[in-house]
Design goal:
This protein is α+β, with helices and mostly antiparallel strands. It is built from 3 helices and 13 strands. Helices cover 16% and strands 30% of the residues. The protein is globular.
């Protein structure tokens, strides 16, 4: 049965709209993996926060011990695995919930008028070569070869009810053998006037991370200058099984503080109380919740 003239017009309009949105996305930040029409991306034209795209993965992806064969690219800046999500109200990590979440920039996004969300999978070619080089640079103690990559890009999307807030970011899932990694890449990002967060969380929050400062909307433009791998605008994480493996080197962070209370820190229970309060504050600033703090007292001696 043939299409009516109106239906033919609507199909043609949607095709032209899709092509024009992909064509606009040719100039990408240097750190972005290929995306848009030049990469042959599949484009998801969403309506506000009503849309999620299910992707059947070409290779299994292991995320902190759980193996997935599908993922959902949700319009509001995050990926889920068990089910799609139109959740625009940000739940701050750790959620202690029942869903694994990868959130390059979870906020209320509206692409009904501007911007595109697109994705592409790779199992060979130059993108795998790039991923292999990147991971071996950031995790030099591994001998890694990428066999599969998924790139999901939010290009020049705007925040809901705030025009002129074009924001571009990307998440890259990488796997090879029994190892899994994610990269979060940031281009130009506008100040977020809605709730916002960047990081990841797991079932029961056994592993979670928040990019420091990313829960503050005014900080979001600084994401393109931030990094944990000395590459401005990029954050890299190993995510296959261990919850303490994202210390890319054997880092020891020293925190110096002056105790002004009358607490006797020779008592072990007082030490534990101080460490617990300190860890709570550091977690708020992005320290992984799995990190354990130890106390060492340094007594200054007089000359």
């Amino acid at each position: 049965m043939g299409l009516s003239p109106v239906s033919q017009y609507l199909l043609m309009f949607i095709s032209i709209l899709s092509l024009s949105r992909v064509t606009k996305a040719q100039t990408a930040p240097v750190i972005f993996y290929p995306f848009g029409s030049v990469a042959g991306d599949t484009v998801n034209i969403a309506v506000e926060d009503e849309n999620s795209t299910r992707i059947d993965l070409w290779r299994p992806f292991v995320f902190f011990g759980r193996t997935y064969n599908k993922t959902y690219v949700n319009s509001n800046g995050h990926l889920t695995f068990n089910q799609s999500s139109s959740e625009f109200y940000v739940k701050y990590f750790p959620i202690n919930g029942s869903e694994d979440i990868i959130a390059p920039l979870w906020t209320d996004v509206d692409v009904s008028m501007n911007g595109i969300i697109s994705y592409q999978q790779y199992s060979n070619g130059s993108v795998l070569t790039q991923a292999t080089q990147d991971i071996n640079q950031y995790f030099p103690y591994l001998s890694f070869t990428a066999t599969w990559v998924l790139v999901a890009t939010w290009d020049r999307v705007e925040y809901f009810y705030h025009s002129g807030t074009e924001t571009s970011f990307q998440v890259v899932l990488i796997s090879g053998g029994n190892l899994s990694f994610i990269l979060m890449n940031y281009g130009d990002c506008a100040v977020a006037y809605n709730a916002v967060q960047a990081g990841y969380d797991t079932v029961n929050s056994t592993a979670h991370f928040v990019i420091p400062g990313s829960i503050n909307g005014s900080f979001i433009p600084n994401l393109m200058y931030s990094s944990n791998v000395n590459v401005p605008g990029r954050w890299a994480f190993r995510v296959d099984s261990r919850s303490d493996q994202n210390n890319l080197q054997e880092n020891i962070i020293g925190v110096q503080m002056r105790v002004t209370s009358f607490s006797d820190l020779t008592e072990s229970e007082n030490i534990e109380t101080v460490l617990e309060k300190l860890q709570q504050e550091l977690v708020k600033s992005g320290l992984p919740g799995s990190v354990k703090l130890k106390f060492r007292r340094i007594q200054k001696t007089r000359p």
